[in-house]
Amino acid sequence: MIRVENVTYGYGKTSVLEDISFTENEPEIIAIWGRNGAGKTTLMKLLSGQEKPNKGKVEIMGMAPYNRSEAVQYVCYMQEDHPFSSIWSVKDALRFASYFYSNWDEDLTQRLLKIFQLNEKKKVSKLSKGMKSALQFIIGISSHAEITILDEPSNGLDASMRKKMYQSLRESHEAHPRLILLSTHHIEEIQPLCESLVVIHDKKVLLHETIDEIREYGVWLAGEKIKIEKILDGQKPLEIYELGSSVKVMIDVPYNDEWKEIASLHGLSIEKAKLQDYLLNKTEEA
Ligand SMILES: Nc1ncnc2c1ncn2[C@@H]1O[C@H](COP(=O)(O)OP(=O)(O)OP(=O)(O)O)[C@@H](O)[C@H]1O
């Protein structure tokens, strides 16, 4: 469905992505995570045909999407702070989108308008940041496009609205499986929804694995410094807290029986690190 092969892209002389590759052929929900400025939006623009790679190939349903309407018809890209006409109401924005996407689900649109308490008569320019995100999400999900790309869809939404968004996304995807790529800074919240995760860091794809695989990694060990140093055997931990003769370290290993056994043998406590903390440390260290 999507293929990125040895893609390099930069704005003028600023290089953003260098020789990145990844492929997705399953109708899954995929999260794209990276620090601010890592290149998530840039990657989404390349996938939706808004930008052309400087080098390498991007393919959507087997076609290069840049300037190609046959390819772009399969994609609904809702960018962060999507530009809508200043004179449009919510209803106008939805009507325009419904003309554009041939699989548009109007029943879903009406249900989501109620869930997000969005007034159709309101001018888009008068919506709050969160309500505008809700509108973009409604368009993205109602489009039923084969490839839906949502750039930070929960931007500005409070915790309750984010919960509603995740639930609607899960239900819609279960009813109509399709490829949904979404970038997020709320990885802890979004991970139960996603099958896999792409981490962009240092202009590269640092990780592209299933969520189940990635969330095994990152372990906190705590206890006597001398014992932990012995286990680390000169390797640098991802994070360290020292308190007298005790330390707590995060290490880049899976939280499995082997490590539980090692911790128990050395009289150390062991716990799983949060995915968000693990990723923050991985992108600090890499
Ligand atoms: N139109 C542009 N012209 C020049 N540089 C740009 C442009 N758009 C983005 N950049 C730069 O490209 C880099 C990647 O930006 P991008 O928006 O893709 O990152 P991001 O991962 O989506 O960031 P964030 O999480 O902060 O939204 C940044 O250094 C940014 O300053």
What do these coordinates show?
- This protein has 286 residues and is of the alpha/beta class.
- It has two domains: 2-201, P-loop containing nucleotide triphosphate hydrolases (Rossmann fold); 217-283, Alpha-Beta Plaits (2-Layer Sandwich), CATH 3.30.70.120.
- It has eleven helices and 13 strands.
- The chain has helices at 40-47, 69-72, 90-100, 106-115, 129-142, 159-175, 187-190, 211-214, 225-232, 257-265, 275-285; strands at 2-11, 14-24, 29-33, 55-60, 75-78, 147-151, 179-183, 196-201, 204-210, 217-224, 239-243, 246-254, 269-272.
- It has a six-stranded mixed sheet, with helices on both faces. Strands 11-12-10-13 form a four-stranded antiparallel sheet, sandwiched between helices.
- A hairpin with a 2-residue loop joins β8 and β9.
- α3 (90-100) runs parallel beside α5 (129-142) and α4 packs antiparallel against α5 (129-142).
- The mean pLDDT is 94.
- Adenosine-5'-triphosphate (ATP) is lined by residues 11, 14, 16, 34, 36-42.
- Adenosine-5'-triphosphate binds at residues 11, 14, 16, 34, 36-42.
Question: Could you provide a short overview of the structure?
Answer:
This is ABC transporter ATP-binding protein. InterPro entries: AAA+_ATPase, ABC_transporter-like_ATP-bd, ABC_transporter-like_CS, P-loop_NTPase. With 286 residues, this protein is of the alpha/beta class.
